[in-house]
Amino acid sequence: MDSVSIDNTGSPLRGIAAKLREKAPLMTETYVAYAATQQLMKECTRHADYTIPQALEKNEELPRDETGAHLGVSESWWFKELGLDVTFINWAQVTFIHMYLLHVRFRMLPTTHAPVWIQHLTNHAFYAAEDRLVVWHKINANSLRQKYLKDIFSQWRAVLLSYDEGIVKGDAVLAAAIWRNLFAGREDVDFEKLAQIVGYMRRELRRLDMASDDEVVDGRWSFSGNPEQEQTVVKTQSRSMAGDASRP
């Protein structure tokens, strides 16, 4: 039987109080992480936000692409400039890019707290996905929603593995991972835009790396701009590489 410390009144409080003090910071961290990651998730999802106006009309049929996926409307750079269809899956993939950037930064938190932040961010992602399926896609059957969520959870796991590999092995490997995940391996991908996304991810990872823990976990972190800001750098490097290739 475990021994229990007692206070000077003879009650077994001292040992219990010590255990509570030990656990209290982590318990508090859980509440803080839940609220902060809820706000951070909104920042992740806003980059590819879209609506389906027909979903607001009673008995209106939702538009679909050739695969049967519902089509929305959006002013997002990620859709307009990349030529991606405004679909739930593409929204998820753009959201995953931003989630991944925060995920990497959360790994730098104390080892006792990092898993809490990572888990809450992931949970909020799937709450947001389920809400979107109900509000904009009118998928009210729980079994069908769970099928969609199971599919994108598998995609999220693939994203983590492939982007981790890209960050470690270099820009070419990261670009290949983005091409597979975001562009579904399309042959007509704009490689300049792909390079801009790689530059964007590297830039945001640097910003997160330079930020203090408090700056990241207060729930107010925002990503700066979009990949188009990398256009000048990409063009300059492309010309430089072309020049090098032309040398004997």
Walk me through this protein's architecture.
- The model is unreliable at 1-10 and 240-248 (pLDDT under 50).
- 63% of the residues lie in helices and 0% in strands.
- The protein has 9 helices and no strands.
- Helix 1 crosses helix 3 (88-106) and helix 4 packs across helix 5.
- The N and C termini lie far apart (80 Å).
- The protein is mainly α and 248 residues long.
- It has one domain (14-242).
In short:
With 248 residues, the protein is mainly α.
Distance from N terminus to C terminus (CA atoms, Å) equals 80 Å
As for the number of domains, it is: 1
Mean pLDDT: 87
Q: What string gives the helices and strands in order? A: HHHHHHHHH
> Could you tell me the number of beta strands?
0
Strand content: under 5%
**Sheet/helix structural class:** mainly alpha
- What kind of sheet is the major sheet? none
Low-confidence stretches: 1-10, 240-248
List the helices and strands and how they pair.
Layout: H1 14-45, H2 77-80, H3 88-106, H4 114-135, H5 142-169, H6 171-181, H7 191-210, H8 213-217, H9 231-246
Characteristic key phrases:
248 residues; mainly alpha; 9 helices; globular; disordered N terminus; disordered C terminus
